[in-house]
Write a structure and sequence with these properties.
Strand order of the largest sheet of chain B: 1-2
CATH superfamily of chain A: MetI-like
CATH topology of the largest domain in chain B: MetI-like fold
CATH superfamily of the largest domain in chain B: MetI-like
Number of strands of chain A: 0
Oligomer: heterotrimer
CATH topology of chain A: MetI-like fold
Structural class of chain B: mainly alpha
Structural class of chain A: mainly alpha
CATH class of chain A: Mainly Alpha
Chains: A mainly alpha (262), B mainly alpha (297), C alpha+beta (370)
Strand content of chain A: under 5%
Helix content of chain A: over 70%
Largest sheet of chain B: 2 strands, antiparallel
Distance between the termini of chain A: 23 Å
Number of helices of chain A: 11
CATH architecture of chain A: Orthogonal Bundle
Number of helices of chain B: 14
Largest sheet of chain A: none
Helix content of chain B: over 70%
Radius of gyration of chain A: 22 Å
CATH architecture of the largest domain in chain B: Orthogonal Bundle
Number of strands of chain B: 2
Shape of chain A: globular
Number of domains of chain A: 1
Distance between the termini of chain B: 48 Å
Chain lengths: 262, 297, 370
């Protein structure tokens, strides 16, 4: 491209990238620092990672987060994919109602989601625990999965399914043999997004988790409030690595597979 | 085809003749889930905001407007005003920082994907972890202060944490990618021959930007602003961890009513005031978007 | 009468308030190359999709018949058809050979038979199997994709092949080449081709018969010569080739001709086509059937209207002489190019000239259709 942005623009851009990444980089580096209190570099250690394994609350929190993440991702991915199929491939009455319904979770502030669900659970006398957390995560993830899968479906040539049908495939066969192979990168990246949001969520979870069902973010929050020690850097680093790997995988998935022949 | 249609064919035929039923069958699981676990709770919460306060949390039957009235006392109005000012300034700062970034990425040629990836990465990263990263840097004995002292710029650490500045920095840090990505995608779609057309018509760089690029990227600007404004409005983690108890926002107020203060109806009313602001923001967004779509059609 | 493989009986199709197809009836004979021609939005694609089974006629919206059976409600996969899509619709995740084999698998062809059939189909469309069989659609050029799409349809040995603007995305040279190949395949295989296009030249080149559609109806159905030489309505006359129009009122009959008086002058038209005394008449005359001559040298028995030469346009094969006539109208006369360097045309801008034509060369059109 011929028009290069002016120097002052590039300066802002460089500053923004430093602003976005330096704090995380520092965080990671100091997870390997020996000293407990100082921000002086005193030597390399894996001590803080070992300490994580000794702390049952962290290990338990991690296990809970993964369990909630996987189950809420599975449910929201199925629900969201079905909704995206309906929106992209069917003419039906009440479409604008459904679209509005899908918008609500995207624009509602997390804190409102959290307390309104808390109210519902208390009203129903439903115990707070892993189930209540999972339901909350499914509720806020369905819309995001739907949006991601729907975008993929819209990029897909609708005549592919018609081609399959005229070649002799019925709707179900056409779905499995043609739609799903085209769609699965979209479904997977929707699922990855859902898992990441579930795995990272603190605000909503904090309202709907009971005692004994603290997920990892809840545990980390408590640690941050209590006292800052390098174990937090270590657990943060692990979360960062997991997220980065998920993002790279999802990015590859959406890039490698061509959407259509051209 | 002998022996009449199979069960499978009959089922497919039934759905085929009822397209609306087919669509609703696909929509039902997710749609019902959203109605029960998203919409219904909001409706119940709305109802709660008119009820009497229960003694140990919860509500008592009754109808009252006192919680809304209470919210409009100076004490709470200050909090509301502070929250709105905070959300608006976060949005503006994100816009000022994010637009140049989006613009640069859109014309970064072979670096485009790498630069984009570096914006998406924090977008996917835990907000809590990122807030902690800010604490780690900004606390009194944190890295910034220790570097400043070592460089001899200050004698003892300056206080950054637990100030409005820290909250603001945390919010901008948290939501900047939400601003960059939509602006980038609208700039990406921009037809570059339009710029050449403007140039050949005699427009200098400044005019090309303000008369062509900026108007055409407005959908991205508006979408990005909405995506920053809404979570900034509802934020309580940043003010909680970075602002200490000093910078109470509506988010903290609501959280408080459901935890220590145990005033659920008041918390519900505050939530609804927040939702009203969200609806206004979404309304503005939709108006701009529709006007834009109408222009394109 | 030849066997009719597709038949429409008064078919209607409505989408919401939009009537895409209104009461159309026609039949297509076995082995025919049948084109459905019209501008975008005329209902031609909907007509094809009604045959394919992607759309179904309205309730009480007539009948669609395939091989004599009413198939109004049959699904596409129950119709044993083949189709080439405008976008080709090749499955991006399958190689060329798997794309071609897809239909055979779906229709339960024995596994052992499939590789041979795929090879045969690739030969038929002149795609080198050793080179292309294992490629993905994304690794092919536009022309190659087109051939794969065709092979995927032909491998089924369909009795009816539907083609939805299949050549639209190709460049001109390749398009001409494929037109000939399609025509040859149609002859050799005996397959009925039903071809949707908005390109009138393409339709004239390939078709045995053409249905011209306009505003959800069939404006005219006939052989290319019938359509071109005897357009029934002003729409058909304008849409296919170029036409000059002359209007007036029938004032009197003399022998085989009616006299028509218009604002620009009087002319004779053939007495068929139900012209009556005092009726409004509009006729179309093709540019190549008009002559331009000096106003005082009009051949005997020809209609002539005098005017002024506006411009002469060089087109290569022909020259177009544009003549301004009274009533602010300009007509186009096509003149064969006999070499402008050796024997230049005598007409130039500003000359007084008359356009002339034989009464039998004008086609009286039906009114009430723009």
């Amino acid at each position: 491209m011929s028009h290069r942005p002016p120097a002052w623009v590039l300066a802002i851009v460089a500053a923004v990238y430093v602003f976005l990444h330096a704090p995380l980089l520092v965080l990671v580096v100091f997870s390997f620092n020996e000293s407990k209190y100082s921000v002086e570099w005193t030597g390399f250690t894996l001590h803080w990672y070992q300490r994580l394994l000794e702390r049952h609350d962290i290990v338990d929190g991690l296990v809970r987060s993964v369990a909630v993440g996987l189950s809420s991702t599975a449910l929201s991915t199925v629900f969201g994919t079905l909704m995206a199929l309906a929106l992209a491939r069917h003419r039906f009455r009440g479409r604008s109602f459904v679209e509005a319904l899908l918008y609500v979770p995207i624009v509602t502030p997390e804190i409102v989601v959290g307390i309104s669900l808390l109210i519902l659970y208390v009203l129903l006398g439903w115990p707070l625990g892993l189930t209540s957390i999972t339901i909350a995560h499914v509720a806020f993830n369905i819309s995001f999965v739907t949006v991601v899968v729907h975008a993929r479906l819209q990029g897909m040539d609708g005549s592919l399914e018609e081609a399959a049908m005229i070649l002799g495939a019925d709707e179900i066969t056409a779905f499995w043999r043609v739609t799903v192979p085209q769609l699965w990168p979209g479904i997977l990246s929707g699922a990855m997004l859902a898992f990441t949001m579930s795995f990272d969520d603190y605000v909503i979870t904090s309202f709907v988790s009971g005692t004994g069902s603290q997920t990892l973010p809840i545990v980390v929050y408590t640690m941050v409030r209590k006292n800052i020690e390098p174990s937090i850097n270590a657990i943060s680093t692990i979360v960062l690595v997991v997220t980065t790997v998920m993002l790279i995988v999802s990015d590859r998935l959406s890039r490698d597979k061509p959407l259509s022949a051209d | 085809m002998s022996g009449g249609p199979s069960v499978r064919q009959r089922v497919l035929g039934w759905f085929h003749e009822r397209p609306t039923a087919t669509a609703w069958a696909l929509l039902a699981p997710g749609g019902l889930f959203l109605l029960v676990f998203f919409v219904a709770p909001l409706v119940i919460m709305f109802g709660y905001s008119f009820m009497e306060r229960g003694l140990y949390g919860g509500v008592e039957a009754g109808f009252t407007l006192e919680h809304y009235a209470a919210f409009f006392q100076p004490l709470y109005l200050t909090i509301l005003l502070r929250t709105v000012v905070m959300a608006v300034s976060t949005t503006l700062i994100c816009l000022a920082l994010g637009y140049p970034v989006a613009y640069t990425i859109a014309r970064a040629g072979r670096f485009k994907n790498a630069l984009l990836f570096l914006v998406i990465l924090p977008f996917w990263t835990s907000f809590l972890v990122r807030t902690f990263a800010m604490i780690f840097l900004m606390r009194d004995s944190g890295l910034i202060n220790s570097l400043l002292v070592k460089a001899g710029l200050v004698e003892e650490g300056i206080t950054m944490l637990y100030t409005p500045f820290a909250v603001m920095a945390g919010l901008v840090y948290g939501f900047l990618p939400f601003m960059i990505l939509p602006i980038y995608s609208s700039l990406e779609k921009l037809d570059l021959t339009l710029l050449e057309a403007a140039e050949i018509l005699g427009a200098p760089p400044r005019a090309r930007f303000f008369r062509v690029v900026l108007p055409l990227s407005m959908p991205g600007v508006v979408a990005g602003s909405l995506l920053v404004f809404i979570p900034a409005l509802g934020s309580f983690l940043s003010s909680d961890l970075l602002g200490g108890a000093k910078q109470i926002l509506v988010g903290n107020l609501i959280q408080n009513q459901f935890t220590s203060a145990r005033n659920w109806p008041f918390g519900s009313a505050a939530s609804f005031v927040m939702m009203v602001l969200v609806v206004i923001a979404v309304g503005i967004y939709l108006r701009v978007r529709d006007a834009d779509e109408a222009r394109e059609a | 009468m030849a066997e009719s493989v597709v038949e429409f009986v008064n078919v209607n199709k409505t989408f919401g308030d939009f009537r895409a197809v209104r009461g159309i009836s026609f039949h297509i004979e076995k082995g025919e190359f049948f084109s459905i021609l019209g501008p975008s939005g005329c209902g031609k694609t909907t007509t094809l999709r009604l045959i394919a089974g992607f759309e179904h006629p309205d309730e009480d919206g007539g009948q669609v018949r395939l091989h004599g059976d009413v198939v109004n409600k049959k699904r596409p996969y129950e119709r044993q058809l083949a189709m080439v899509f405008q976008s080709y619709a090749l499955f991006p995740h399958l190689t060329v050979e798997k794309n071609i084999a897809f239909g055979l698998e779906m229709r339960g062809t024995p596994k052992a038979e499939i590789p041979g059939r795929v090879r045969e189909a690739m030969d038929m469309v002149r795609l080198d199997a050793t080179n292309f069989a294992r490629r993905l659609p994304a690794q092919l050029s536009g022309g190659q994709r087109q051939r794969v799409a065709l092979a995927r349809a032909l491998v089924l040995r369909p009795s009816i092949l539907l083609l939805d603007e299949p050549l639209g995305a190709l460049d001109l040279k390749l398009r001409k080449e494929m037109q000939l190949e399609l025509k040859t395949l149609n002859r050799e295989l005996g397959t009925t081709f039903i071809y949707v296009t908005h390109d009138q030249e393409e339709a004239l080149t390939m078709s045995d018969r053409i249905a011209v559609m306009s505003e959800a109806r069939i404006a005219q159905l006939g052989t290319p010569a019938q359509i071109y030489e005897c357009p029934r309505t002003p729409f058909v006359a304008k849409f296919i080739g170029e036409s000059n129009f002359f209007e007036g009122k029938a004032t009197g009959r003399s022998g085989d001709c009616w006299r028509v008086e218009g604002s620009g002058g009087a002319f004779d038209v053939p007495a068929e086509n139900g012209v009556t005394q005092g009726a409004d008449v509009i006729v179309a005359v093709r540019p190549e059937w008009l002559d331009v001559c000096a106003p005082d040298a009009v051949p005997a028995g020809e209609n002539a209207i005098a005017g002024t030469v506006r411009d002469v346009i060089y087109l290569g094969e022909t020259l177009h002489v544009l003549v301004d006539l009274p009533g602010e109208r300009t007509v186009t006369v096509a003149v064969r190019n006999e070499g402008q360097l050796a024997r230049p045309l005598a007409w130039k801008k500003g000359d007084r000239a008359a356009v002339a034509w034989k009464p039998e060369d004008c086609q009286v059109l039906e009114l009430g259709d723009a």
